[in-house]
Amino acid sequence: MDEPVPDGFGPDHDLDLIVTLGGDGTLLRGARQAAGLDAPVLGVNLGRLGFLTSVAESEVEDAIAAVGSGRYRLERRRCLEASVWRDGEEVSDSWYAFNDFVIHKSGVARVTRLGLSVGTRHGERETVGSFSGDGVIVATPTGSTAYSLSAGGPIVVPGVQCILVTPICPHSLAVRPLIIPADVDVRVRSVDRSEELVLTVDGQEVQPLDPDDEVRVKRSDLAISLVRLPEGSFFTTLRRKLGWALEMEREATT
Amino acid sequence: MDEPVPDGFGPDHDLDLIVTLGGDGTLLRGARQAAGLDAPVLGVNLGRLGFLTSVAESEVEDAIAAVGSGRYRLERRRCLEASVWRDGEEVSDSWYAFNDFVIHKSGVARVTRLGLSVGTRHGERETVGSFSGDGVIVATPTGSTAYSLSAGGPIVVPGVQCILVTPICPHSLAVRPLIIPADVDVRVRSVDRSEELVLTVDGQEVQPLDPDDEVRVKRSDLAISLVRLPEGSFFTTLRRKLGWALEMEREATT
Amino acid sequence: MDEPVPDGFGPDHDLDLIVTLGGDGTLLRGARQAAGLDAPVLGVNLGRLGFLTSVAESEVEDAIAAVGSGRYRLERRRCLEASVWRDGEEVSDSWYAFNDFVIHKSGVARVTRLGLSVGTRHGERETVGSFSGDGVIVATPTGSTAYSLSAGGPIVVPGVQCILVTPICPHSLAVRPLIIPADVDVRVRSVDRSEELVLTVDGQEVQPLDPDDEVRVKRSDLAISLVRLPEGSFFTTLRRKLGWALEMEREATT
Amino acid sequence: MDEPVPDGFGPDHDLDLIVTLGGDGTLLRGARQAAGLDAPVLGVNLGRLGFLTSVAESEVEDAIAAVGSGRYRLERRRCLEASVWRDGEEVSDSWYAFNDFVIHKSGVARVTRLGLSVGTRHGERETVGSFSGDGVIVATPTGSTAYSLSAGGPIVVPGVQCILVTPICPHSLAVRPLIIPADVDVRVRSVDRSEELVLTVDGQEVQPLDPDDEVRVKRSDLAISLVRLPEGSFFTTLRRKLGWALEMEREATT
Known about the structure:
By secondary structure, chain A is mainly beta. Chain A contains 4 helices and 17 strands.
């Protein structure tokens, strides 16, 4: 799927369950298909287990049996919506991301200077500031364990209502990952009017940006429901993927 | 103030405004006094402006005039509540922190191994895991710009409903700051039954811990209302304190 | 200067001093011209002072007077040399960098997997390992305060004989900046045979890489001599550029 | 061993090989005993392999056979030497560290302000600056994979002639790990005349510091020779300890 998500996209069927076979990237593509439907998504990983695809190939039958008998939980994950504005007008269709939008330099550009502002709950806009660097990641909590983590961002447990704004290799060492409320929007534009900026969607789709473009990101109503089996909790996945230790037990106090 | 916050603490007066004179530490002490009252707090900084005390000495009269004429906004900041448990029983009064609780090694101990668990919204407990390091910070969004920031945590904009759990110098490089929902609790205990752990409250009060103690932290109902003047927004303070650039303007597209 | 540095480059004159007018980038370009000469380089910065250009426009006359009367010190900075190899043959001219070589993804590639090896002093090669990420920086100590610092690298004081290898946004959180001896070489190649890799030289020149190319970097004999005035020491520059505090004085012990 | 290393320490025997049984900490203690001798040290690890102890219990016989038949390499590791000065006089015996010296707050002190200076090769002293934080680590390349790594320092390959100066949780985000030449000294003192500073040696020995004390650290002539078997190279250990990937192979270009 190489185009923006259309308004009434997805097949017109009654679906009980969508099973994706592949890695997290495959599930993200399936999630876009499923976003407008009501069907939950079960990610089966054919290789190394991912953050989103926590069922191994050998466990598929057990997993589907578990789903059939109701031994699962649904984790609802909202996505972010981005649009591109120029001279006060929207110049693109909306883009949807379950993990992240990245605004970054492309080609041979070494660095770019980006300016950020956020909305407030009082309906105003506040300038965050500007910084030079490789770009910026605007991520959902789901995306906190993807590119944002590599760029120095924190791990956000599902259920926290927030948006992550993680700068990529900022020149100023004082510019750090920012956690903003989920109900305000973020706007990013090029301060130095760079000609080589692109917008990347979940690491899969790319739109080149004009020097005068502003990217506006807000939380979308689109969501998917991930099927979670009892043994596939967030922290179980985290410990497995990041190699965190479990050893919580200590000797009795005798 | 060197003791736990008592249940019915604070003077029994009708107060319209509490003004603290000093740094952020002074305001934090004043905040404990004010936490049970309804009076908002205005922090006047006699030295370098802080994150919480954004009015300079020379601006006091203007600030009070602004408050008198209603040209201000109140920012409500909830605090965290900690208690110490041993063998299933609570063995301390409650502690309250507006910035953070820190569980860390003291004395000559080089390192400690801590085990963490969090509650879930389904009323269960989940093991996060254990890690070796200097300790762990459990912080409010307000505290995200204090010790947690020095330890590698993100900046949390006021209004995000969350608790930060920031490890201090963890041995495992994969152990990273964690953002959890504000309505679940965090429990921390020593896995190696260290004899030299202490609990620090807002960097001001210290309680030694027994090797078998478990510290339980949750969001409290206690809160203060910080007086915010129009020119003292969160991002204005951030730019000033961290040296972030403002330059958002670019040349017109002509 | 958009081409590789030729063997016998530079004008054929007797020069006592090269003065560059501009920022650090200008000086880097001047340094390539001066690298084959014996003339020292004095960087005058027309804007904000840089790490390499520590003389302000208003100080030019004093600086030249100081040089004339011998009140200066020369800081010799060696550069790195890179070549590109394919199927065991060198397929490019040599490139020279005073700050850094960067091997990174270009275009829309989200990530690349790079494999690194280093030579040993016993004449063997050792595999360092491979990692996924945005790319890798191979820097001189001079370059430690440039891009490498933004990517999480340490600050290297001039005079340490080493090469920095700093990964850019590595997926594995355990992959960290590496300091290797100056007299061994580093080789970098694409493990996943990425088609969109480029080699960037001091952030100024770019060579696209073939999926099978290997970039080999070693210390070069080429060097420049930076003119350092008494008030322009490395740490003075560091404090000014990074905002480090000076306050070393404490009250007398009375 | 809980006391400073005496001048003529160590047993007075002819030794061919010292074998330590235990973890890296045990080897560090053995190394102090061996430092004055000529005998190389072979670290056998009874638990999980360490950075310094890379021979497992089951491999002891093979390892000793390898040593007996000369199939090993000696890695010489120099140590650092620290002394404590007050009012211009040395007030302690010398301390020796193979990994690191740490000057840090103890007890309930939340933070301390330290001032640093380094010597230059021209025999002068230069002020580095001062910073607030938990303390500072002064480490050898060997110590770069110990505490310094947890505090954000780089990995230094054995053979680089340098000293690492790694701040611990500095308040200023611009204060970063520093690599200085091995032949200059570092001096650290309390700027705010903190009463609760301690000096820790290899994480094992502790000396309380007076508010007026200055700790001076330089490279020592003392060294140990670690026995390295062919399969126990630095990068092999690094990949195993940090979980770095090896996969360097790529498909042939056909």
